[in-house]
Write a structure and sequence with these properties.
Layout (H helix, E strand, L loop, with lengths): L1 H37 L10 H23 L12 H10 L14
């Protein structure tokens, strides 16, 4: 009977050891993936590839929209072609506070 208990214990130990090895491998892969994503990479999971391409494309669009909104803030560009309300809207869209108009009285 003692031999049978030892065999079960050895088998359970091997199973636990294999599971720990697998979980350690998955953890290391996840850590590497997070580090790669933090460095600006796209997810390797093929289900997210299209999302990643869309996100990269949207980054370019956002940059162009920010550049366009900034043009409203420069007098030598489009700044004096729009009203103060538009300039303040552009500031707020860029994360800046409105400085030319009282925002509570917006038309």
């Amino acid at each position: 009977m003692v031999g049978l208990d030892n065999n079960r214990r050895d088998q359970a130990h091997r199973c636990v050891k294999a599971e720990v090895a697998q979980l350690t491998k998955e953890r290391d892969e996840a850590i590497a993936e997070v580090a790669r994503l933090k460095a600006g990479g796209c997810a390797r999971d093929q289900r997210t590839t299209q999302w990643c391409a869309e996100a990269v494309g949207l980054q370019g669009r956002v940059k162009r929209l920010e550049e366009f909104a900034n043009r409203f803030l420069h007098p030598e560009d489009l700044g004096f072609t729009v009203t103060a309300w538009i300039r303040d809207d552009a500031r707020e869209a860029l994360g800046m506070p409105a400085v030319e108009t009282p925002r509570s009285a917006k038309p």
